[in-house]
Amino acid sequence: AFEPLSAEEVSAEARGEHDLIVISHGCGGNKGQGAAMSACLARCRGEFVAQMESDDERERADAYALQLSLLRGDPTLDASGCFASCVGWKRDGMDRYVRWQNGLVAPEENSRGRFIEQPALHQTAVFRMSSLRALVPDGRYRDGRAPDGEGQAQPGGMLDVPVDYYFWLSFFHAGQRFQKVKQDLFGWRQHPRQHTRTHGRLSVDSLRLLKIHFLTREGGPAHGRDVQVWSVGKTLDSWVSDLESCENPPPKVEGVEWKPGQPIPKQKPPSKGDAG
Fold it and tell me: Pairing between strand 226-231 and 126-128?
């Protein structure tokens, strides 16, 4: 069976020429990725900020310099990213996912792709601190449900959300802009027990509810508009049901049975107020 590298093994393989200053902060035990990201953000004072996990890779010494160059050259960008590749326990499905992400480069491409899946790995990005502070004004990344006492008051506060995808949907909902350097500068470590594969917040049902929240909330592309859902079987039924019962349900939800490769069914074209 595959076993992920230990911290000692990762340290032994680290490049000898790297001279890093490591600040260790105890925040009361293992509280998850969102808590760790929030603890770090509270202590950041620079103009730019980036994060990565200890078992991921950035082999090129100029990786951050290339992404910073893109940000400094275009003041309309709030963040820059890069292409990525899978390392470790590689599987075809995750390789295809990362190749899809690598096909989204320009800000408009990344924004359009957000309701399919995350258009980029959060840890591939470098953010302007000013943009990040505007998006996370209280310094707390949302990871799971909203804090006690805030769930009912916040839009979507009761949803049990994954930190990375919630962040990206919030980023694009706020109109922020993200572009990638067209070079592979990041190695995403794969292993069987990673949360991407195992955590309940990343289940198909949870991700559908999160997408529906951002589609239908005020400012979302489906807010106040009739919606057509094209699919089959349980997927179609689940989307229709969850749209009809969400916080901001569309005036009308229509399910259309269809799957790719089949002839387009004959029906009345959607009106200008419809969202597909």
Answer: unpaired
CB atoms within 10 A of CB 14: 11
The pLDDT of residue 20 is 64
Tokens standing for residue 229: 């859902």
Cα separation, 271 vs 228, in Å, equals 11
Residue 159 and residue 144 in contact, taking contact as beta carbons nearer than 8 Å: no
pTM, to two decimals: 0.85
**Spatial distance between the Cα atoms of 70 and 179, rounded to a whole number of angstroms:** 8
Residue 39, helix vs strand vs coil: helix
Q: Which of 203, 122, 119, 129 minimizes the C-alpha distance to 164? A: 122
Contacts of 123 (CB under 8 A, 6+ apart): 50, 51, 52, 53, 56, 186, 188
- Which candidate, 189, 235, 194, 245, places its Cα nearest to that of 55? 189
Per-10-residue mean pLDDT, the chain, length 276: 71 66 64 82 92 90 97 98 94 96 98 97 97 91 78 73 94 98 96 81 93 97 97 97 96 95 77 60
Cβ neighbours around 73 below 10 Å, total: 9
